[in-house]
Design a protein that fits this description.
The protein has about 525 residues and is an alpha+beta fold. It is built from 23 helices and 16 strands. Its cofactor is Mg(2+).
């Protein structure tokens, strides 16, 4: 394939078959530096895929590119949108870079764009909206880093080449010059993408010294894009792992969340553990690598937790349960479910006990784990609702094992539902995911038993509206019946009626009133 050719699968107009192009527009990419005369077939396919992926937004990109060119400025699509085009992933936001400084960008686009925002102006970024498309245009950068922190001293650059070499990974250091559609790949990003490897434009040690958060991004991209981390990158991550503590908890949290929300986060999490990064950002995870004794008296808790996470992800979305009419669903990707799956057993290292006779116990590890989860997620600056939800799921994840063969009374089922509250669907998935036994018969039996519990919950909910369970009398009615003012005693009476409701189901107002008066008389006597 000669430089600029699009490879097989293209019509005479240069556009791939099946892609509609505006009339008389011919789409050609000029490749810089030129590709070999006969590039590997996978590279040719990537180029073809990029053309197809960018086709819907190319008229817009060429239009704004022509606007800048007419004013004597450069403009290029860069980073994630270019990488994703080669991977066949849709472009969401369009990141561009230019030699024009922010004020000039605003001047050039003020009448062209439908809206502007300049919250990133200090870092050289101007945001635009044109129709339904969002663009961010950033002035070329040649930042200088104070390596005692990760805050760069922002310096504007003068060339695309300077801008690309400062980027985190070669697969994110590819650009498309506009409006001429010149594909620029100075650091072998396309070759790395074809080879499924993650490398840095500069040396990895230098790159991570400039910005330690890039080590977290390496784990995310390894999971998200299915890339193998290069030897130099892995070594630099291991060497510089302690420097991640220079990064704010909020930034670490955001990268961890993005990793967990990928389709297959396991390999990214492994990379964090294997390089030592997890010891500084999520130390409870490597702590799960308990020494497995020679008699294998307990399973590998670390591997078990990763498997539970995999299984929880597989259960996200609509599903059917025997005996339950309506489909149950936790829409994915769900951060609360995934955090709970990963952390559900973090109380085990602190509670492990070797029992007489060769057994191993982890008594109350769910309670310890709930406290540890809340502490770690708070330290990572997760919001209060997420912290509360994850720690509650960790606390409840063993509750089902008291169900046995279905011996729970309706009262126990009501309490299970009430304790889970709005997290019931999440608890269903977490509990099912926690079965990692290789014994097929045991796994099938556990699944059938949980099917039975879910069916019982469904029947009780239909009969009693368990999702909104409350006593038949509210606080005002309790005050009136007992002739007492609002206060602590009304709260005690309410909790009595709630326990009665959970134990015995729907009683009706008359019976509830009689039982309340009897309780009050016995209490007062």
């Amino acid at each position: 394939m000669t430089p600029g050719a699009l490879g097989p699968g293209c019509g005479s107009s240069g556009a791939p078959y099946g892609v509609r192009r505006p009339p008389r527009q011919r789409l050609r990419l000029t490749v810089v530096p030129p590709t070999p005369a006969d590039p590997p077939a996978v590279t040719a396919r990537l180029l073809e895929r990029a053309v197809a992926g960018l086709a819907p937004v190319l008229p817009l990109l060429q239009e704004v590119g022509a606007l800048f060119a007419a004013a004597g400025h450069e403009l290029a699509l860069v980073g994630g949108p270019v990488r994703d085009a080669f991977l066949g992933r849709p472009a969401v936001d369009l990141d561009l870079t230019t030699d024009a400084e922010p004020d000039r960008v605003l001047e050039l686009t003020r009448r062209w764009a439908d809206a502007h925002w300049d919250v990133g102006r200090a870092f050289g970024t101007i945001g635009l909206r044109k129709g339904h498309d969002h663009l961010e245009i950033t002035t070329y950068r040649t930042d200088e880093y104070d390596r005692t922190s990760r805050k760069p001293q922002v310096r504007f650059g003068t060339s695309l080449e300077e801008d690309l070499v400062r980027r985190d990974f070669t697969v994110n250091a590819m650009a498309l010059r506009l409006p001429q559609l010149e594909f620029v790949d100075l650091h072998g990003g396309l070759e790395d993408l074809a080879g499924r490897v993650l490398r840095t434009p500069a040396t990895a040690t230098e790159s991570f010294a400039d910005d330690p958060l890039r080590m977290m991004r390496a784990a995310r991209f390894a999971a998200q894009l299915g890339l193998r981390v290069g030897t130099e990158v892995r070594a630099a991550m291991t060497e510089r792992a302690p420097t991640i503590t220079m990064v704010s908890a909020e930034r670490v949290r955001d990268e961890l969340s993005k990793l967990l929300l990928t389709a297959q986060p396991r390999e990214g999490l492994r990379l964090l553990v294997d390089t030592g990064l997890a010891a500084h950002v999520l130390p409870e995870l490597p702590a799960l690598q308990l020494e497995v004794d020679e008699h294998h008296r307990h399973k590998d808790v670390y591997e078990h937790s990763l498997t539970v996470l995999d299984q929880a992800i597989a259960l996200e979305g609509p599903r059917r349960v025997v005996g339950v009419e309506a489909p149950l669903e936790v829409r994915g990707p769900d951060l609360v479910l995934r955090l709970a799956a990963l952390l559900h057993d973090i109380g085990k290292p602190a509670t492990r006990r070797f029992e007489d006779g060769g057994g191993v116990s982890f008594h109350h590890h769910e309670l310890v784990g709930a406290k540890l989860s809340a502490k770690r997620l708070t330290a990572l600056r997760y919001d209060k609702e997420t912290v509360k939800a994850v720690s509650r799921l960790v606390e409840l994840h063993l509750r089902f094992h008291g169900y046995g063969g279905g011996e729970w009374t309706d009262s126990a089922v009501r309490r299970y539902v009430t304790d889970a509250g709005p997290l019931l669907a999440h608890l269903h998935l977490l509990t099912r995911s926690d079965s990692t036994t290789r014994n097929a018969r045991k796994a099938a039996r556990l699944a059938r038993t949980y099917d039975d519990l879910e069916a019982r919950i469904e029947r009780l909910q239909a009969q009693e509206e368990l999702a909104a369970v409350r006593p038949e009398l509210d606080g005002h009615e309790i005050s009136r019946v007992l002739g007492i003012p609002p206060g602590r005693e009304v709260g005690e009476a309410y909790r009595f009626l709630l326990a009665l409701r959970l134990d015995e189901g729907v009683l009706g107002e008359d019976v509830a009133r009689e039982r309340l008066l009897a309780w009050w008389a016995a209490r007062s006597g």
